[in-house]
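Student: Send me a single protein entry containing the residue sequence and its fold in token form, directly below this note:

Tutor:
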Amino acid sequence: MINYKQLHHFWTVARAGGIVRAAERSGLAPQTLSGQIATLEAELGVSLFRRQGRGLVLTDTGRVALDYAEEIFRLGDELEEALRSRASGRTVPFRVGIADVVPKAIAWLLLAPSMNLPEPMRIVCREGKFDALLGELAIHKLDVVLADSPMPSNMDVRGYSHTLGESTIGFFATPALAARLKGGFPACLDGAPLLLPGGEAAVRGPLLQWLDAARLKPRIVGEFDDSALMRAFAEAGAGVFPSASLVGEQLCKQDAMVHLGDANGVTETYYAVSVERRLTHPAVRAISAAANKELKIGQEGP
């Protein structure tokens, strides 16, 4: 069985980038750290570090061990924080990153189940670019990231993409704009002012392909990385805009938008990206379970 004290010494040295730095930070003697790591390597029968010049670098096995150590000690921190919060009656923080291309109404729909847990949660939302949020996830500043695409395979970040659900895509416009459009759907889109999500949105390509296949040439009058800003322009009557049909009823009732029709075959998929292959955080598990039930889909991928 692994000696977790020795594993913690290995983790400290790996994160510090060397034994001397780790000794300065931990207050332990370099000889102590070196001896503990040597014992761990001997017991496991592997080499975790190799010498490079005057310093140490991780071996391939060491990098694997560091990934697991990061998760072990992150879970330990979460356990400590959760137990202290329970003892003091404080709420447990749930730190969520939301890619800015994910519609705010969809983010709320996905996150709502985390607000109804027996253990009170304090949700902390961070919005930004998907890549930047994955960086925050990698260093455990976030518990999960919500996005419209899985984690890119070429990113040097250990993480797992959990499919939450999907929605068809519809086109919406203000009543005044809808009244000016000519013909039925989808012909009414030809020549119509159109607002589109930016290049980072996964649904942009399929939407453009759908328009091309239907021989429709709308006037693209705006492109937006931020879904909320696109919706604000649409509410001002600047153009027709695409949105998930999951929130279509809300758009029509609360925002007085008109549903023109759906882009058949075009869907938007939503993912929870975590550092865990199997979800353990209670809030993330609640989100996944509710999505599986309500959105009729729920698979995990690497």
In short: The chain has eleven helices and eleven strands. The chain has two domains: 4-76, 91-302.
